[in-house]
């Protein structure tokens, strides 16, 4: 859906505080011990195999003896072969997704915002309509007939630029139809400015609408107040309720930024799913510009426990044949089932770019106005030299110590923006979550194989 | 060690039977639109139209599906010559000998399915007019008046996988190459992919190239191209392929 979302809610890689935890294991394999019997996760190609108890004993012994013994055992089992991921970065990545910072300003004052209350630390800006049209032409000009592309509206708060947003959408839909491109639309909004006619518009164009909600009532209000200090929850819920009832083509989802102040994840998940959001996902706050709201090591243990509690509730519902749209686990199960393996956490700087109000391209929406992620401009297109350097430097094989981590091709090395700002403080959390998800995959594949039938999840 | 049990899609895709080298997995297989060694994708086209069964490499209707209407049942044995008004055969012209006059060589040669049906494969569920003629046993081409029947396009892929009703069990491995008998010898065009080179150590500095051809009886000296007289013949191949081909086992030619 939106922006080539990574498999994980947020950053990944390797922890500073426990760089030795998996030294006795193997960078090539991971044992998944579950009630459904022992399984093996083969890192290259993200492959999952069932093991007999004897085979599991062999792998346990080999992993205790170190990575080389495990690699030999893998070869004995006929599971070796050429590397699944090459060292070389991809070349000539075509642009397939853009996000427009149509309004580099916001009416909220969230404590942790990467855009620093919407203006990215500079002056508030609005994207002129001609810049939005140029972005659309740039995106669709690079898409051959039959290809898929996505246009996202972000900010700041994009509904502060409603006129530009709608005009760009209509222009893009028409151009995409002419060119035979299947174009999807998405928006991430704080929900405070949503009107009923926005619902009609989003429904007409089949938007993926993401509403930022950090909890229920006061929990949300503490993190996401208006600039004057008043809470925003009641207003958001009132505005969004008609859209939730209206969704057919559009999908209205909730995204929860997790900080030390809203750690009761099961309650939040249940509450938001109960409000009929199409799906609900969590994003741990790992790096905020001011440091406020950032999760610390102890907090991450609580986040992991909460995520696993939510995942366990999800498993229970799926076994009972019920829908329980907890985005993080749905995405993880889908990707594990496919065996997705990749050298990057997302498409940032590869097929996906952010566009600033003044028409500059950046590696993603978070790098708007940041020289570290500058990728050229709309007039001349992507700066291929900078892009190639970015893809070379950000490749997970170039990240230390990701290279020796078993989760590297599921995680991709962690959100570039967070890693460049704060390093990799959440690796234990990420491995813990992936370990849980691998177990959940094996359990559900055994108990409910129909869940993984074509087209589902 | 007995095989591990592949569970997720990437494990299943990389499944390798015990003893097989990595080149036998689908990702490295010779399994394209020509008869392959592992599976023959041309069979995907046999049931592209609901009701009739086509030959995988010809426009002949080899059968019909159970329970079809009399109109469709009557198509068995006919040749499909146009789909949606577009001919799927073409006249072939050219010289009979080098430098000779251009003449018509084949009046209605079949265009292979992948190209002939490219326009309709993306429209599963659509109904398209299909034009049939009788089969002329003398020429192997179409003959007689045209019959137009509307047929429904079947999805051959769903969610990136082969659709269950597009091929029956076993069909993907029908019509495979029989490389140790005939087909490898037949392919004199250096067709085989890089994973199975048929001509190696090639030196192109002279007028004609020299190198090692996989069919040469004596592997020591480099010979001139594959026309050299010391290549294994069809008959020799049929009579003694294991002895002549000397499969490489554990890095050495077998005796």
From TrEMBL, chain A:
Keyword entries, A-Z: Iron, Iron-sulfur, Metal-binding, S-adenosyl-L-methionine
Gene3D superfamilies noted in UniProt: Aldolase class I
A Pfam family hit: Radical_SAM
Highest taxon, organism lineage: Bacteria
Cofactor: [4Fe-4S] cluster
Occurrences of domain Radical SAM core (ranges): 90-323
Molecular function terms, GO-annotated: iron-sulfur cluster binding; metal ion binding; oxidoreductase activity
PANTHER family: ANAEROBIC SULFATASE-MATURATING ENZYME HOMOLOG ASLB-RELATED
Protein family according to the UniProt entry: Belongs to the radical SAM superfamily. Anaerobic sulfatase-maturating enzyme family.
Protein name as annotated: Radical SAM protein
UniProtKB/TrEMBL annotation, chain B:
Species the sequence originates in: Limnoglobus roseus
Phylogenetic placement of the source organism: Bacteria, Pseudomonadati, Planctomycetota, Planctomycetia, Gemmatales
Name of the protein in question: Uncharacterized protein
